[in-house]
Amino acid sequence: MSAKEQKIGEIIAEHHGREGPLLPILHDVQEEFGCVDTEAEAIIAKGLNLSRADVHGVVSFYHDYTAEPETRPVVQICRAEACKARGVENIIDDAKAAAGDRVKIQTVYCLGLCSSGPAARTGDDLHIRLDKEAVTRLVESA
Amino acid sequence: MTQIVKISDDALARAGGADKLAAAFEKKGCEVHRTSSWGMQWLEPLVEIDGKGFGPATLDDVDAILDGSSDKAIGVIEDHPFIAAQTRLTFARAGKTRPLSLEDYAAHGGWSGLKRARQIGSEAIVQDVLDSGLRGRGGAGFPTGIKWKTVAGAPGPKKYIVCNADEGDSGTFADRMAMEGDPFALIEGMAIAGEAVGADQGYIYLRSEYPDAIRKLNAALELCADIIAPFKCEVRVGAGAYVCGEETSLLNSLEGKRGEVRAKPPLPALEGFLGRPTVVNNVLSLAAVPHILVEGGAAEYAERGIGRSKGTMPIQLAGNIKYGGLFEAPFGMTLGQLVNDIGGGTASGRPVKAVQVGGPLGAYLHPDQFDIAFGYEEYADADALIGHAGITVFDDTADMGAMARFAMEFCAAESCGKCTPCRIGAVRGTELIDRIRSGGRERDTLELTPQMHNVPKGKARSVEEEIGLLTDLCDTMKFGSLCALGGFTPYPVMSALRNWPGDFVNNPEAVEKALDAAE
């Protein structure tokens, strides 16, 4: 048994008794390995007595699960209505310029900070009232 | 005596630097209490000392605040016009208590609703909720009491209370504030619902974009497990799908499936989570319940509001607004009062161009419509919806054509793919709006083939014809989609087209003519 099988097996065992265990398992696998790849899907499918297609269908449905790990730092920038009203579209080019190939700029829809946008998230840290300079600083320090 | 300084630990205040500020005050020898937020978000991080507020505070203000010379002083917080004008029932504790302090919660009336609920029993609880006139705060406005009655009457040994905390709508943050600021109130509401319908298991389906709320609720559940027992409750974290805010798709997601919408009937009240009777309520609906269940609470709730919209609504002022934040008030205020008098107009100081009420699926309202009273029916009559009561303000630099296109693009990106009007309609809608904005288009090669009998040959499709098509498509989406995502996307699109035709084409008259012809 590989180390990966071992670890995923432990995660499955931890959640197995819950009603609807698949999403909590996938969250933990994504957290542990940075992605849910085909190998992980197969192990989870076997563990929960589901088909690989079932598991892949779920993994590919949700934005939070990725097939490959992201090696770059990620800056999530909200581009939903409220942040658009506060000018996020005017700073997005600055964010992209500061990011280059080093940082991944990801669009999200709503971080719940809608009166004080443009808003961004890095890890579990949130950032508000971004302007061109602030977003550039944020991306550069990511 | 040590000076007590209150600073919110709400996610927005923290994003504004509240943690560093709190550390700075502690370093000065103050006792810092991390409370919930008052909801005056333009003042966050707000520092409170002896009831007086200072904000938005930065590290440079610490000394001046302590020696009383700060120019950030706003006076007594409770007397501030933004707070004084509110009627806070659901958010009664906002700004006053430490979110994870059981002591604070109990001292401010916590658990009294649950205590009384346990005494009066199932039928009386449902009757109280019916009497209060509480309707689903998630947007659909279905009477909460009737839902509970259905679940209470449904046969089955195992029932569930599911809290919909997948607050994905842009312009809304009241759920987040309730969960971060007063997590015990939501849990108490769920325990009361459990008592009412005979359910002993609850799930809170919380979006992954709210890390602070996840942390706080998990901690709160651990702290109050003995108080709510035998009711048990668990947080389940979503995985970034907007459509999971729709109740049936949420249930699928909770079961560990793709978050695809289910056809109704069967109603979740009868066949919900794992096919068992399930109450699915929004955070605000459940958080309103503890207040309703205290002695006389239902009557107090019901006497506020207008028509069939009873009680108070935590309204969220967002977007380009000067005084943004949480404003809980009885139904009935006009949009103009909310945006101009309370919100102070735009943050940019430019004229208000458009106001979107009810999140990404809500209509764009023109300042000419500012006299609409805040209520479910009143908005429906104006071809709009109050949704989750998020109000997003745009100034005159906004391009409403681009916003209409974004509404379709968003629907295409977030569609679960189950029904055709939403899955394909949204993609076609984006293309249509692009064509309208670029002034129509030539016939393509396929349309010119002899097999395409119905296509008029030789002439390009005019903007008027494209608008006719868009209107038709929106009708199909509105009446043919399984859920509100596809069904309500036409609201922002058509309202933008009707109110600001000049943002789509150079000759707005053509749009009006085409819209009239299409209707």
Helix and strand arrangement:
The complex is a heterodimer of chains A (142) and B (519).
Chain A: H1 3-15, H2 22-33, H3 38-48, H4 52-61, E1 74-78, H5 81-85, H6 88-99, E2 104-108, E3 120-122, E4 125-127, H7 132-140
Parallel strand pairs in A: 1-2
Antiparallel strand pairs in A: 1-3, 3-4
Helix pairs in contact in A: 1-2, 1-3, 3-4, 6-7
Chain B: E1 4-8, H1 11-15, H2 18-27, E2 31-35, E3 47-49, E4 52-54, H3 62-67, E5 73-76, H4 81-84, H5 102-107, H6 112-132, H7 144-153, E6 160-165, H8 174-181, H9 183-197, E7 201-206, H10 211-228, E8 232-237, H11 247-254, E9 278-282, H12 283-293, H13 297-302, E10 305-306, E11 309-310, E12 312-319, E13 325-330, H14 335-342, E14 352-357, E15 364-365, H15 376-381, E16 390-395, H16 400-414, H17 420-423, H18 425-437, H19 445-448, H20 463-480, H21 484-488, H22 490-499, H23 508-518
Fold and architecture overview:
The complex is a heterodimer of chains A (142) and B (519). Chain A is of the alpha+beta class and 142 residues long. Chain A has 2 domains: 59 residues, no CATH class; 67 residues, Glutaredoxin. Helices cover 51% and strands 11% of the residues of chain A. Chain A has a 4-stranded mixed beta sheet, with helices on one face. In chain A, strand 3 and strand 4 form a beta hairpin. Chain A starts with a helix and ends with a helix. By secondary structure, chain B is an alpha/beta fold. In chain B, a hairpin with a 6-residue loop joins strand 14 and strand 15. A 5-stranded mixed beta sheet of chain B has the order 2-1-3-4-5, covered by helices on one side. Chain B contains 23 helices and 16 strands. Chain B has 4 domains: 76 residues, Glutaredoxin; 201 residues, 3-Layer(aba) Sandwich (Rossmann fold); 91 residues, Ubiquitin-like (UB roll); 119 residues, NADH-ubiquinone oxidoreductase 51kDa subunit, iron-sulphur binding domain (de novo design (two linked rop proteins), Up-down Bundle). Chains A and B meet through helix 2, helix 4, helix 5 and strand 4 of A and helix 1, strand 8, strand 12, strand 16 and helix 16 of B.
